[in-house]
Amino acid sequence: MPSHDADGFTRGNALDERVRLGMLTPSSNTVLEPVTVAMTADIPSVSSHFQRFRVTRISLEPHDLVQFQTSHIVQAAELLSDAKIDVIGWSGTSGSWLGQANDEALCAEIFQRTGIPATTSVLAINEILSITNCRKVALVSPYQPEIQRKIIENYAGLGIDCSIERHLDDPGNYSFAQWSEDQIADLIRDVAKEKPDAIMVMCTNFRAAPIIDRMEQEIGIPIYDSIAAVVWKSLFLAGIDPGLVKGWGSLFQNVQPIAMREGN
């Protein structure tokens, strides 16, 4: 028999029973949506859904920082919740320069307002680095120097050395998607020469995810991409084994979320 939730929504067929991943998206981002859908394309029980809020430029200027006020993001999360989403991911990296505590507070607020578990690209990456005990991590991004310096400073506070870095001095946000996969591959090769424990690509409007698998095979170093990280954690929170994602890098096969490792 079909079942009904508290709002009278009928569940009883395969489409109703899909796991729905909800992704909060910067308004000027053109990369994360198609990449997220492609990553999960071979998991028929999963669908991805998106809600945008305004982000047009990345800097430490007050008028740009205000884009990431918790109230703006939570409002977008509340709209996503109307679609009976199972998990909400902030597929963005503002927490890397605003600090991990900012993302933790955001996820707590989203859960309080919607009752839906939440994560972010940065919280997922930080969990991955903790699980894999990476302490020397190369940082690749398209960001301007002041953003890059703030990210490095925040990771130093977590005991992670990101002094091996390359960035493109791009104010973005739309323009981040204009850098080619070949240009990103060159940045990755450059930092790989210094033999870090891992490489993290910080930006969800950057075309890194599609080349991670082949680049890891080429350089022999794990690469943790911002889009891939939030998908990895969101799948787990929604009750789906991240290992079902194939061909998008070693993360999905080699790293288990903390709760999964503990058998919870």
TrEMBL record:
Keywords: Isomerase
Lineage: Bacteria, Pseudomonadati, Pseudomonadota, Alphaproteobacteria, Hyphomicrobiales
Gene Ontology MF annotations: isomerase activity
Provenance organism: Rhizobium laguerreae
Protein name: Maleate isomerase
Source taxon at top rank: Bacteria
One Pfam family linked to the record: Amdase
PANTHER family the record matches: BLR3294 PROTEIN
